[in-house]
Design goal:
Distance between the termini: 23 Å
Structural class: alpha+beta
Number of domains: 1
CATH architecture: Roll
Strand content: 25-35%
C-alpha cells in the first residue's frame, strides 16, 4: 500500500490541477489543428496507446527547430515516468526516454 502512495499522489495532482494540454498551448493547438497544420491530440494519444500503457500526466506542444512536437509524459503501473516526443504534423514517434 505504501508503494502505491506516490503514484496515487501523482494521479490525484494530475486530475485536480492540470489539463492535458497546458493552458498556453491550448488555443495555439486548437488553431493549428483547425488549420490542418497538426494532428489532434486524440490521434497522437491513439498512437501512444499502441506502444505504451499508463496514465498521461502532462502534454505540451513545443516548437523545436521549426518543428511542432507533442511532448507527452506517461506514468506506468510501477510509477515510472516516460516522456514521448511525437511529430505533431505526422504523428510519428521521434523519441522516448525515461525520466529520472
Amino acid at each position: 500500500m505504501l508503494k502505491a502512495l506516490p503514484l496515487l499522489a501523482i494521479l490525484f495532482t494530475t486530475l485536480c490541477f492540470s489539463s492535458l494540454i497546458q493552458a498556453d498551448d491550448h488555443d495555439e493547438a486548437r488553431a493549428l489543428v483547425k488549420a490542418g497544420k497538426i494532428l489532434p491530440l486524440e490521434s497522437i494519444l491513439k498512437n501512444l496507446r499502441k506502444i505504451a500503457e499508463g496514465n498521461v500526466i502532462e502534454v505540451e506542444l513545443e516548437h523545436e527547430k521549426q518543428q511542432l512536437i507533442y511532448e507527452i509524459e506517461l506514468v506506468d503501473q510501477q510509477g515510472i515516468v516516460t516522456e514521448y516526443l511525437f511529430d505533431a504534423t505526422t504523428g510519428q514517434l521521434l523519441q522516448q526516454k525515461k525520466e529520472d
